[in-house]
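Problem 12. The chain below contains 646 residues. Write out its predicted structure in token notation.
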Amino acid sequence: MNQKILTASLAALVLTTGAFSVQAESTPPNFYSLDEVVVTASRTPEKKIDANADVAVVTAKDIATKHYSDVTEAIRSVPGVALGSQNASSQISFTNPLTINGSQNVVIMVDGMRINTNGVMSRTTALGTLTNMNSIDHIEILKGAASTLYGSDAQGGAINIITKKPEDGQVHTKLDLSRASYNGEKYGIYNEGSSNGFFWTVDAHKELQGTYKDGWDRHTINHLNAKSISTKFGYDFGNDSNLVFNYEKYKLDYTRPDGGTTSTQADHGKKDNDRISLQYNAKISDRVSNQFSIYRNQNRIEDNYNNLTNIADGSGYTDIHMKTTGISDQLTYKGNDQTIIGGFDWYKDEIPHYKYSYGGGSPAKESPEEGASVTTTAFYVQDKWDITDKWNVTPGIRITHNSQYGNNTSPSLSIGYKASENTNYYVNYKKFFRAPSLLELYYMSKNAPNLDPEKGYTVEMGVNHKFNSTLTGTLNIYTQRADNLIGWDSAAFNYGNSGKIKNNGVNLSLQKEFNKHVSATLGYTYINADSSTKNTVYANIPKHELNIGINYQNSKLTASLWGRGIMDRYTTKDTMKDYSSYWVWDIAANYQFTKEATLFARVNNIFDQFYTDVGTSYGPNADPTKYQYWYSAPGRNFEIGLQFQF
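Solution.
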């Protein structure tokens, strides 16, 4: 109850300040207006206030001001999003535990093209390996089921990372150099330009990191040597038509503790990922447009290769190659009162190579997953009909064929009411369907277990509102139901259908401009989880979360202070109760001392908070030799650097 009172008080404080605010003369950093355009809510451009959905946006200015190292850092403070990392950097983890509105089933995209992996414990992707942040224009986070437009498995929502498209006819170059705690070093170079219809971006990045300390000053085994490059080349035919080619490469050598951060055994690993895509956007007429995409993603992980023949009670050896090939096409028709979207998605997930060992000196052997594959084919259509100037209705349907589980239909219905230019209400109903992953199907044997797909629905209602020219807010209330939850069955030592989910929640966001120099944000998330397997499903999710940000800018200086308050996180044992609530504060500042040069600094975990953001069954003194694991987050750490633009 105290947290609810605190939240209501903070919200009231921010709301009431609107009456005494000074009219803003320019947009402060990190402020995304409801009048700005988003595309992920309906797969067509629309003002954020008009979207019948709960959409959050992280802008390029936000990324640059706060110096986010990867996508996990950029979205961590978005209300409704819960992220976990087992190391000082999210790059080292196999995958980053990610939930939106309490669901682990989230579709991740780059420029509308799916990049989810299928073969390890998470079906999203290792967001920490997306480190080429200079090439990102903005990130849209759609919270709530998005099954019709983005896949029947988009139970929690979708994340769309939208990259930059230079258009000003000039060439720009940015160079970043920084040093950080834990022997950290970062080097980056970014170049963009356009000329005679051609445009391009090239973003290269290198990062080094060593052993880190947690909030109790305990040292943790850690090493990171990452290199990445992202390229985009395109040609603009005019009339909103273009052809774009993308190629990304990421390589990582790392060292991690074998079993939790208290482990003294070092495991060495490698990652080698690449993505290639070709996308054609065509404006066929004033009313009709088309987008065709073809892509191929590859993710390779070799973990614990140094201990392959010398493991007593270790985490074992993994050598896996995951590959996804996909094609999608979308046709959009914009009438006077209707916007109709139709299209198809086809993609194939496969595991060409998978060797593993459980340890104990046993040799590596072929996994039952090796050679496994699954194809998904889907057709979808959605029709947004403006019945009147105020009312609109959007029915939609996706028909999906999974090569393992046959056909499934995912309908959706959205009703919107535009009460005024400043207020938009909506109610949504959406069904979802999630087939078992290749890991869940073939973990122990080539013979797939008798697993049923997860099925359920989400009902949500919300409002986007502009209180005045300097204060905006969004509120979303949802309920989610799912049957046939797929989880780990320790008795059978395999995956099984283990229960149901009943999940209710609230997301609140407020953005306030005090004047042309100062702005602030407030976010609140509440999740009431009721599940027969709550302990495993919601292990890293807080019941309450507060996100507070304060931003300042003048002609030469920009600064941001932001904090994340976790309260009453769902835990599996009483030993974790003392670590289920905490606050973490970060600060970043940038000083432009010449037209071309900027000095920047960042302090993470200012107050040296001891915490973990990964759910665990044991406390900080867990004994890894008894299969007890704890994952400490880094304590206070620093970064300082220079940025040159020319």
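Discussion. Residues 2-16 form the longest helix (15 residues). Students who got a different answer should revisit the alignment rule from Section 12.3.
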